[in-house]
Amino acid sequence: MKLKLPNPGLDDRIPSHEDLERMETEEAGDRPKWDNKAQYLLTCVGFCVGLGNVWRFPYLCQSHGGGAFMIPFLILLVLEGIPLLHLEFAIGQRLRKGSVGVWRAINPYLTGVGIASLLVSFLVGMYYNTIMAWIMWYLFNSFQDPLPWSQCPLNANSTGLVAECARSTTVDYFWYRETLNTSAAIDDAGGLQWWMVLALFAAWTLLYVCCIRGIETSGKAVYITSTLPYLVLTIFLIRGLTLKGSTQGIKYLFTPDVDELMNPQTWLDAGAQVFYSFSLAFGGLISFSSYNSVHNNCEQDAVLISIINGCTSVYSATVIYSIIGFRATQKFDECQGDNILHLINAFDYPENSITIDNYDQVLTNLNQTNPDIIQGLPLKTCDMQNLLSQGVEGTGLAFIVFTEAIIKMPVSPLWAVLFFIMLFCLGLSTMFGNIEGVVVPLQDLRILPQTWPKEVFTGLTCLISFALGLIFTLRSGNYWLALFDNFAGSIPLLVIGFCEMFSVIYIYGIDRFNKDIEFMVGHKPNIFWQATWRVISPLIMIFILIFYFVTQVTKDLTYLVWDEEAANFPVLEARPYPSWIYVIIFILAGIPSLAIPIFALFKFFQRKCCKDKSYKDHPVDTISAKIEMNGKTID
Amino acid sequence: MIAYADFKIESLAYFSKKMPNHVRWVLQQIKSRIERLNALFRPVMHYNCSAHHEGTNMTEEASNISSDTAAYPWSKNEMFLFRAALAFAMRDYTNGEEFGVSDIHPCDETKRVSFWFVVTRPNTTDLVDKGTVEMAIKKSRNRINGAFLLTDQTLEFDGIYPTLAAPVSPDTPPWLIVFGVVMGAVSVGIIALLAYPLVQRKLKKNKDADDEDSDEETGVKTAEIGANDGIYNSTFSDDERFTQM
Known about the structure:
The structure holds two protein chains of two kinds.
Chain A: H1 10-13, H2 17-26, H3 37-48, H4 51-55, H5 57-63, H6 70-95, H7 99-106, H8 111-140, H9 163-167, H10 170-179, H11 194-211, H12 215-225, H13 228-241, H14 246-254, H15 264-277, H16 284-290, H17 298-347, H18 359-369, H19 371-376, H20 384-388, H21 395-408, H22 412-445, H23 454-469, H24 477-487, H25 491-521, H26 527-554, E1 558-561, E2 573-576, H27 581-609, H28 623-626, E3 628-629, E4 632-633
Antiparallel strand pairs in A: 1-2, 3-4
Chain B: H1 21-34, H2 49-52, H3 58-68, H4 76-93, E1 104-107, E2 116-119, H5 130-139, H6 141-148, H7 174-217
Helix pairs in contact in B: 4-5, 4-6
């Protein structure tokens, strides 16, 4: 499709190829640069590889047919992830600006896309760093033996365990009561939890110290934060494979169920996972690649990072499920052991007469001979499949399921520390990208004086995010976070991603883009890129967007609460949201998405009413204006 | 006045020898003890235990136990140890009443080491009531466990629930200590990073001031002083001194 929308004045807004060559050789300007290619790659890998690879992908894999899920995942990775990634890298490298600068250069009416990226990065950064605070809290608490989530506290008169803990599990209690101190509804705000405020403060100050001068400082930090998770994953893999039951977990994860491929939800989830996993549309990747040299091979980088991201997802899924297999086997053995004990006590059998292997046989025999006694016994059905499928996603996986597995391992504090350091590094490197996606557009928008140093911009961002993020330290903070996660980080990103692709291909122009890439990399992008950029990827994104929107709008909006008085306690109960939540949802999802058309309209009216001042857009072209001395133009 | 007192001692039966090695690592401490004792003690306040269990001879039952149970060597000696431990507990609780091994009467022993027992006052046939025996056992529970190298989970007295040890809570929560360390490091980092450019600028200003002084002194640089310090730009130099005609 050779559609190209009219775009006057584009050449004046963007540096030409000659300008780029000149900038390359002169090293002019105070634009930051990568120290080396490895730093750039590690930063991008760190941004892409995040908590989602550890706790979202394994859950999707397992719930959508195991090994069969790889098929839609890989297909959509190739057709959707890699083209979009290449596009963002190329446009950033070509136009040498952050997200707002890039879209404003392409067309001033498109500045809204950059602003939407800014808003989304800000909102997502706010709640993402709260998860970091939770991880830090658990990390701080891992330096003791026994681990605090391995025991229930005693009740007031020391006669027994606290009721809430006895009815659920120690890990549940530690998470919901001692960490979150969660209330029973989102309206019930409760007060600020001081320990959570401290943890949040620690998270934001640590992020500030790493990002204080942009990639100058974060570029050094990524050497550790991007590589350490892989080391820890390997350690966990080795440890996990030596535990009993781990292979069962891995088998369960990868057992393919080909029927799931017929389910459209599988493809939708795979597409969404590829999209979010690549951290596209946040603006951070555009920024990062704008610090590259002009002739950097962005095509190779895009393919490389996509492969690394995909492989990391599969690798971490293997590790996680080996540990989940271990936990399920432990729980199964305990459950069966209790049953066997009840039987032995009731019938006074000698020890070892009933084992896990012959339990079923013995039970059926006894049921025939003494059914009344069997009825009276509190025997539980121990279902291994059920235990394996309890592989929850999200915070549930990290803070409940995995912590429970850790306390059953020997030398628990060591594994806990390693695990939470790994999660922390994964999250921190993603936060670097988020901060980049907020600070650089903020500087480009020129809302604040340009003379202020970058440290102030970063500091302001961290401070305001911390202040607003205090909402997540309330007693109902967990519910607010789930709300943000569901709405702020989903639909707006899809909208922005689609607009990005459309803008570059049809407003910037695919021909110009091809020539740019030829100039930068050395060869024109081949037919694969042409086909995916022009047709396939936009179609896939529209598809996902519409389906996502429809499913969100049609389903009843409920959220899961931890309520002691609920009937099914300790299972979380689904409650409907109060009606004022819809306003919040609109703010979270609607405002970033609507920023695009609103800003276009704003620009339109600004142009129209201030038409007489438009001569300012075209300054007089004189030689004296172009003379530079000592790197600065003479005024 | 006859009251039944149920005391039950059980072990976790499934911790058998078939446990694979890695789990055994965890259970090493209790492995040896588990292999020993798995008993159900039910003291019956009937002094005449055989009335509870018509026609069985106690000594016969005791010997049955030792041959049937393969997992641990429960024997008459172990039973003696139990009776001695109980006698100690009674003595300890009643502050010196001279309970002897003969005052502890186990009965109704089963294939799976579990039995009832009764306690009589020394030198009489009066039964000690359930409450007193329970309190005595509670007081000396650790010692009885220790005698058999078992724990509260592996040696159970039916009806006596172990008093739960309060979880150790240190004065300063450990997490605050780690938090303090991290925050200290972060603050040092922030101050250092913020101060670094200011310090650099100050040093540069001093260096510039020094440079200005030295600049004024150099006039024309000759080859000896420093004319050859620069980079020779060969763009406009010819290889030959004279232009070609």
